[in-house]
Amino acid sequence: MTANRAGIIDHSFATVMDIAPTLLELARTVHPGKRYKLRDVVPIRGTSWVKYLIDPESTRYIHDEDAVTGWELFDRQALRKGRWKAILIPPPYGPGEWQLYDLSVDPGETDDLSTQEPEKLKELLKHWD
Fold first, then answer.
1. Rg of the chain's alpha carbons, rounded to an integer?
2. How confident is the model at residue 2, as a pLDDT?
3. Phi and psi torsions of 124, nearest 5°
4. Which of 90, 84, 59, 91 lies closest to 70, judged by CA?
5. DSSP calls for 35-65
6. Tell me: the pLDDT tens digits for 89-125?
7. Which phi and psi angles does 40 have, rounded to 5°?
């Protein structure tokens, strides 16, 4: 399925939320809907990787540049949109304010651009609120 990408480093963004829709599509089945066996079922979030894996020529990315993904874990927060990522890490492990990174040139998240790109940070944070 991925022979066309052999030997290439792929920088596509994916999230654990993409696994369930991918497995459902590979199994040729569907999500059970809003209820299953008298229980509420949470809607699936994420995007299947199948088109991306099968047809790399027409499907270059799993998530397009306009897709926004946000998450929070252990009081650490993050938002990702295209090449941009905003993170908030509270003290004592971080500065306690939002930081901004351009992952296309800084995949290690070492150069905080929040003061140089305040409008980009505001654009991302609109999705958090």
1. 18
2. 58
3. -65, -45
4. 84
5. EETTEE-PPP-S--SHHHHH-TTT---SS-T
6. 999 999 999 999 999 999 999 999 999 999 999 999 9
7. -70, 140
Backbone φ and ψ for 72, nearest 5 degrees, come out as -140, 135
Rounded CA-CA distance 79/128 in Å is 7
12, 61 in Cβ contact below 8 A? yes
Helices (DSSP H) in 2-108: which residue ranges? Answer: 19-26, 50-54
Contact residues for 48 (Cβ-Cβ < 8 A; gap 6+):
18, 21, 22, 24, 25
Separation in Å, CA 103 to CA 8, 53, 110: 18, 23, 10
User: Using an 8 Å Cβ cutoff, are 127 and 79 in contact?
Assistant: yes
Rounded-to-integer distance, Cα 123 and Cα 129, Å:
11
